[in-house]
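Ticket opened by: R.M.
Priority: normal
Category: complex prediction / small molecule

The reporter submitted a protein together with 5-O-phosphono-beta-D-ribofuranosylamine and asked that the result be attached to this ticket for the collaborator who will pick it up next week. Submitted input follows.
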Amino acid sequence: MRVVCLISGGGSNLQALIDWQTKGLLGDAEIVGVVSNKVDAFGLERAKKAGISVSHLSHHDYPDRLEFDQALMKVIDGYQPDLVVLAGFMRILTSEFVNHYADRLINVHPSLLPKYKGLHTHRRAIEAGDATAGATVHWVTEELDSGGIIRQVEVPIYADDSEESLKQRVLEAEHTLYPSVVRDLSLGVIPC
Ligand code: GRF
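Result attached by the on-call engineer:
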């Protein structure tokens, strides 16, 4: 299963995927390319260090969202991916993009969906007095954070948690959740 990861920033989820791959734990999946919309995304360095092909495409070089997404699709398709993994890719995607990768585009979102779609998920969970928070891997559809749920992980919220401490706990849980989903998709444990 040829996997392309899209990133915008630190890429800690990308690193988790790379680590699983290096250890031979990613099933039949292989990360064949990493694409960023930010030239200084640290995730690009992580990929280069692992010997993975990287591409960078700045949205500032395109007149509108659709033209950027079309250029992005060309770059991604150059890798002939079976699966496109959004790993902290901070862009709203056009329906053209989402439909082009229908049933092979996944995202990790830092909440127990359908709770807390969108931003500030940790703060909202704390403010609501929730006992637990978590992360969700889901298929990407046109509606934000609303595609079919593939797998979730739950973590506790402690009384003294700050937004930052909860964010770190959730992120750490994502680092096992996301690679395990990619592995299981590649092995057919989760049907594509
Ligand atoms: C994570 O919080 C993830 O849930 C969200 O974007 C963040 C990515 O972090 N979709 P990183 O770049 O993988 O460290």
